[in-house]
Amino acid sequence: MEVIRSSLLEGAKAARGIAVVVDVFRAFSCTPLLFSLGIRHSILVATPEEALNLKARDDSLILIGEVGGLPVEGFDLGNSPSQILRRGPEFFQGRAVVQRTSAGVQGALAALEAADEVLLGSFMVARATAGYLQARSPQVVSIIAMGVQLKTKAPEDEWCAQYLAHLLDGTPYDHNQALREILFQETTQKFLRRDKAHFPPEDPLLCLQRDIYDFALKVTRQKGLVVVDKEMI
Fold it and tell me: Which of 15, 50, 157, 225 could disulfide-pair with 142, CB 3.0 to 4.6 Å?
């Protein structure tokens, strides 16, 4: 198994084999949490307008996401795992969600055009994702760290990608070093300052939990939609 590491939108567009699109803060930490709270599936869309149009046709859909980190008017929730957790399973059980984000979702949509298969990656599902890949044993795995707004690398995504590579091929990984580089950088500190409601301080606590779910997240096209389903390991 050849493991290729890359970053940002360019990396997603160049994905080969099975692609793992990594977004730790926060899209693909929200997704496994949503499944743990009972959703049927998640639908990925490129724009808020697509999400709102789907909601207009099916009012049971839950819209989750952001543009430039900011909540979207007409959406049910922002791109925040702590907001999701606070709502509880009774809100999500048996329903479908639509996710629109500026980095992770855009990267997954781009990778779907290039790769043979696409998985969503975060610390929460890293070991399960590695288990899925080991069971499939593809010739090539592309791990893509999506970064901040697809423009600059983010330490949490780069380190999660390295952790995935470690699980697959033994690439060195030091979790203490990872935490040092993640916690004291702006991508985390913007939450901890508590000065913006759309960056809750609880979000990093949730997003940096490792290996807490036993399923991978697979992206497929279904009836004209891009759908995420969980794959049990």
Answer: 15
